[in-house]
Specification:
Elements: H1 2-7, H2 12-21, H3 28-41, H4 45-57, H5 63-71, H6 81-94, H7 104-117, H8 121-127, H9 141-153, H10 159-168
Helix pairs in contact: 2-3, 2-4, 3-4, 4-6, 7-9, 8-10
Length: 171
Amino acid sequence: KRILDFVDNKNMTLSKAALNVFQEFNCREREEASKLFFNKWSNNKIVLDSWFYFSASVESKNPIEQIETLFNHELFDKKSPNTLRSILNGYVNNNRTFHSSDGTGYKYIAEKIIKYDSLNPIVISRFLKIFSRWDFYTEPYKTEMLKAINMIDMSNLSNNSREVINLILKK
């Protein structure tokens, strides 16, 4: 209850810190904290990026479906580099399903990289570097990551992303 009160605080930094406490706890209060934060800060796009990051980072039973709801959210602006970066980084940095052994997380992110590269080439080319150490992973992650990289490589990429993918593949 006390942490939820902090989420609803007027101080953005305190509100954000309190929201992030719920990142690792799958409980009823996490959903309540997310709603409180969203309702409090939805008129401030810069702060709302923290909510997008948080929402992308929490694990769920249907992770891809959960992330898709963020990409389809009415306040998601596909041309906003910060919002795009928030969702992508929230998912890959804190959501264990990105590294699923069947490669679905890598494939999903590869699809998003391909989709958003033409709209935000700078953001995507920087983000692509998440795959730069693919050959340091153990199996099956290494092979699954390489499949995603090859999928990206076969796409019509911006010059920035093409340069990064070529470096990753040592072309």
